Amino acid sequence: MNRFVVISGCSGGGKSTLLAALQARGYRTVEEPGRRIVEDETARGGTALPWEDSVAFARRAIAMAQEDLERASGWQGWVFFDRGLVDAASYLQTLTGEEALSRWCSTKDYYGQVFLTPPWPEIYAQDDARRHDLDMAVAEYERLLQDYPALGYETVLLPKDSIAARAEFILASLVLEA
């Protein structure tokens, strides 16, 4: 059974905070490729940023997600990913029309259930790395709601609840499946 669990969904829906809570409970986590790319590109004056060169950004996110999977292959136990390869390929496919999902993604990459954070306007906030508005975040969420199942993943919507309750929800789902 694959132990790589993706937490995806709407930008600004609490994914990173949820992963921090899972990490605090002793689980291995992998930070979102997009945020790491923005941080790196900004620090070195690069242009592979979603608001400058979105195609280069998406291609770099695919490469980083592949590296994350390879690195995590040596880890034991459940590993939680803040987004992943499907998110990056879905974005590239939307931008370019190329068949990025079928080229780079399979149901073998991650655990069969993908946990999605729904749009949550009350907690959504823009920042230096998240410059897009809520409407764009919702469009991304709706695209992922289609793309994950098209690849054979079951999507599970996370409740709009406390971080602790969301973490318990995920862990209980995994225990039932294990």
UniProtKB/TrEMBL annotation:
This is AAA family ATPase. Signal peptide: none annotated. InterPro entries: NadR/Ttd14_AAA_dom, P-loop_NTPase. Residues 5-166 form the NadR/Ttd14 AAA domain. It comes from the Bacteria. Pfam families: AAA_28 (PF13521). It comes from Methyloligella solikamskensis.
